[in-house]
Amino acid sequence: MPDRPLSICVVGPGAIGGTIAARLAAASGTGDIGRVSVVARGAHLAAIRDKGLRLVTPTEDVTVEVEAVSDPDNLPPQDIVITALKGHQIPPMAAALGRLLAPEGRMLPVVNGLPWWYPLPDGQGGFRGAEAVDPGGALWREVGPERAIGSIAYMGASVPEPGVISVEIEGYLDLGRLPGEDRSDVVRVAEMLRGAGWTVRETEPFQNSLFSKLFSNCAMNSVAAISQAAQKRIATDPVLSRMAAGIMEEVRALGLVEGAEIRMTSEKRLYHAANGPDHAPSTLQDLRAGKPLEIEPIFGATVALGAARGVPMPNLELATAMLRAIEEARGFA
Q1: CB neighbours (10 Å) of residue 65?
Q2: Taking burial as the number of CB atoms within 10 A of a residue's CB, which of 100, 181, 280, 282 is the most buried?
Q3: pLDDT, tens digit (0-9, with 9 covering 90-100), for 102-143
């Protein structure tokens, strides 16, 4: 990356992306933070252009001006591109993202599931991304895994109206790379985000963070969407909790093969679900809102990785098949 303030574009300034964009825009011109822009659409785009991007948190209410476009080709190449989209929305943008990212730039794909840059054996002695999250290898080819920085968001936010981001649960970002890869860019980007007010972790090995997230998401999101029950019901129902725990242990076994340590037990995760806020996981939220479900990035890709590594995942495989059938019945398949 260049030795100057970095140009930054957030593609998908929704709940998570909008929070990132607003905080970066508020700090634009300080430290390593250069010009900040967003790629948005529809009413959200119109509101940001007309009134700015408003961020409401438990401790602040700020509105920032930020350049907003609908077409990434209307922006010059960017040093940092942060994608905060549903996993299935990213592959169709592969060529445009490749053009948007400067040759020495870095992409931060903030996703809920297995990221497109995570390497699977390609059967020919090399590696590729999971077909479920990178059909035809478009992102692997147009962007390249070497330019991606692992990015996971732990927070609770929503978009109550166009142009407005509401943060209900302050959280943190976790950035990293796989063992053996150069981390100098991770360190620089993490410091840049801290300068914008973020709490940033740099988990090593990054598999620990990635598979700990999958441990929860694969179980709670799938069972919630199938049963249409929020997490308290899942955690307190003996059959639903048994299915969720079974998926968690399958992900733990896969993580172990991938060199990840998941410290949370399934019992403790279900205890937190039973005794915390009655949260509806994102897949259930999408189902209730009539939106497509994020099946392949969270569930399908994890099942594919399990198959590639020889790790049986019968519970998650069954849940994934049921969710695909639900999507077909809803007309989204």
Answers
A1: 14
A2: 100
A3: 999 999 999 889 999 999 888 888 899 999 899 999 999 999
Instruction: Flag whether 1 is in a domain.
Output: no
Cα separation values, 243 from 193, 225, 249, Å: 38, 13, 10
CA–CA distance, 217 with 205 (Å, rounded to integer): 20
Sign of CA dihedral 171, 177, 178, 182: negative
- Do residues 124 and 20 share a domain? yes
Spatial separation of the C-alpha atoms in residues 65 and 53, rounded to whole Å = 6
CA–CA separation, 164 and 152 (whole Å): 22
- Is residue 258 domain-resident? yes
Residue 263: phi and psi, rounded to 5, are -80, -25
Q: What's the structural domain count of the chain? A: 2
**Using CA of residue 268, residue 272, residue 273, residue 279, what is the dihedral sign?**
negative
Do 178 and 212 reside in the same domain of the chain? Answer: no
Same domain, 173 and 220: no
CATH number, domain with residue 10 = 3.40.50.720
For the record, the structure tokens of 41 come out as 């659409």
> What is residue 129's three-state secondary structure?
coil
150-161 and 78-83 as β-strands: parallel, antiparallel, unpaired?
unpaired
Q: Residue 52 and residue 105: Cα distance in Å, rounded? A: 26
**Which pLDDT score, from 0 to 100, does residue 185 have?**
95
Low-confidence ranges of the chain (pLDDT < 70): none
